[in-house]
Please model this.
Amino acid sequence: MRARIITGWRWLWRAALLLGAAVLVYQLWVFAHIWYWVSHNPAQSAFMERRLAVAQEKIPNAALRHQWVRYERISNHLKRALIAAEDAKFLEHEGFDWEGIQTAYEKNLKKGRVVAGGSSISQQLAKNLFLSGERSLVRKAEETLITLMLEATMSKRRIFEIYLNVIEWGDGVFGAEAAARHYFSTSAAALSAEQAAWLAAIVTNPRYYDTHRAARGAQRKADILLTRMNAAQVP
Model:
């Protein structure tokens, strides 16, 4: 009996060691990608790959609309609008806006459902680049770790540049350049303040607003963002 117990513990230790090794290898794989992307542009994010797979289930030859553009080729209006809309303290925090998280928690608690998110731009980028859409404590822990890696390895400007180029802006539309051309037939560099505010207003539900462009909610939010944009600090 004692021998069986000892053998069982040995197997548990071996399983734990193997699991720990697998987790460590995955974290090193993630960090290697982040390090590489300091000076190289990611071709696609994990979220883009999932959206493409879903689209190709319906249309086998479906493709995403996406074109990388350098940071300086993106309108400052759009940069300011996104900071104002998504993460006003982006330049101040080290990956997590704790005040924003607390505010979002209180709103959700009051409504009894999720109506607000407190994720920073760095957290959103971590999710987009690597993670699935499932909600779990394990995924949240991984998001936290990846966010810390991003903040430790990349400048704020680089984090924001990648974010601007990979976030979803419509059905199969990713990045500032594709969004500018999809909605306004112009380039990301030429976006006006009004156009930029509207694009920033729809990032929380882009596929809906892609087909409901006259929705009042988006325009109301855009009008609010227009009053806040000039105060937004960008990298």
Remarks:
- The chain has a mean pLDDT of 88.
- Residues 1-36 form one domain.
- The chain has two domains: 1-36, 45-231.
- The chain is about 65% helix and 5% strand.
